[in-house]
Amino acid sequence: MELYLTPIFRDSNAKITYKIISPTTYSCRHSVTISWTKEQQLAYVLDIPAVSCSAQYEQVTYSAITVATVSEQQSESYISTVALFSMFSCSPKEEKIYLRLPTAWRELYKDLLEQQQLRTDAADRLTIKKFRAVIQDQVEQEETDGVVLTSRFKQRNQGNNGTSNVPGSPQKPASEGSDSLRDLWAYKASTPAFQHMLQVRNTLPVLQYRQSILSTIDKHQVTIICGETGCGKSTQIPSFILEHELSKGVPCKIFCTEPRRISAISLAQRVSEELGEGPNALGTARSLVGYAIRLESKTSQQTRLIYATVGVVLRMLESSQRLEKVTHLIIDEVHERR
């Protein structure tokens, strides 16, 4: 404990105590109790294999159930690593805390992360299967009634003159504020930070397919894009759509789903940086980019591109407004969906 947990977890508001559960000649199991002197804003992970976890008020206890070690020091180190994982694995600010652990316990922490991701993916797959059936029934009903294109898809097909490309649809005037959107994008694109990052973006392989991708998206309701890892799919394609729509003065709301929380946050930060926005602008009125994950959301009324986890988008589908305000929905890493 003194070697591993205390140097990492420095907090004067915490009192940490250990208890030996089953000391024997060949094995040892410990429990650790962390008591807080004031309420903490922590999202504990309590579903940990082989460990019993209980959180009550300002106290949380972790007890090894089936895992035992050959010494008391190893047992304390094991239960300490579990406690660190439970308290900090859901915190983006402490996502690299395991790097400060010794090698053996660093690997244990990474194994716990992988097991947690597998459980989350399994739950996501069950939820997706549940809603897939509901959505499929709705699509079949719409096709039966002759309704193929949604209202948002029709708006996407409006040209610069404000008319729709869908045959038989009434012409509508250009939306108000189109000039302000064009001015906003012109300002963004003229900043030195944007121009500097543009030189880096232009080296990515996906750039040569930019016009083809945008043209295909404008003409079709569903588009599937395949590319090698690192070609720029996750960062550039959402940016292409954002730039394309704003340059025409067309209002847009783009959601890009990611299978993992860390991916959503890191990609949002990267795209915000590539658009020339400041380091602390993400999710504020100064930024066009934000992210939305479980228990945390960084968006504003100015946000046009949102990186979100699958669970967030599924909850939007359950709401009364569904995805009515979304003009583009990008399913990233679609090959991981089952």
Description:
- The protein is an alpha/beta fold.
- It has two domains: 98 residues, no CATH class; 188 residues, 3-Layer(aba) Sandwich (Rossmann fold), CATH 3.40.50.300.
- Helix content is 40%, strand content 14%.
- The protein is built from nine helices and nine strands.
- The strands form two sheets. Strands 7-6-8-5-9 form a five-stranded mixed beta sheet. Strands 1-2-4-3 form a four-stranded antiparallel beta sheet, with helices on one face.
- Strand 3 and strand 4 form a beta hairpin.
- Helix 1 packs parallel to helix 2 and helix 7 packs across helix 8.
- It is elongated.
- The protein starts with 13 loop residues before the first strand and ends in a 7-residue tail after the last strand.
- The N terminus is likely disordered.
Annotation keywords:
338 residues; 9 helices; single chain; five-stranded mixed beta sheet; Rossmann fold; 2 domains; alpha/beta
Shape verdict? elongated
H/E element sequence = EEEEHHHHHHHEHEEEHE
Give the radius of gyration: 25 Å
Number of β-strand runs: 9
CATH architecture of the largest domain: 3-Layer(aba) Sandwich
Mean pLDDT: 79
The figure for the number of domains is 2
In CATH, the topology of the largest domain is named Rossmann fold
Structural class by helix and strand composition: alpha/beta
CA-CA gap between termini: 42 Å
Uncertain residue ranges: 1-8, 145-152, 159-176
**Share of residues in helices:** 40-55%
- Work out the strand percent: 5-15%
Strand order of the largest sheet: 7-6-8-5-9
Number of helical segments with 4 or more residues: 9
- Name of the CATH class of the largest domain: Alpha Beta
- By CATH, the superfamily of the largest domain comes out as P-loop containing nucleotide triphosphate hydrolases
Q: Profile the largest sheet.
A: 5 strands, mixed
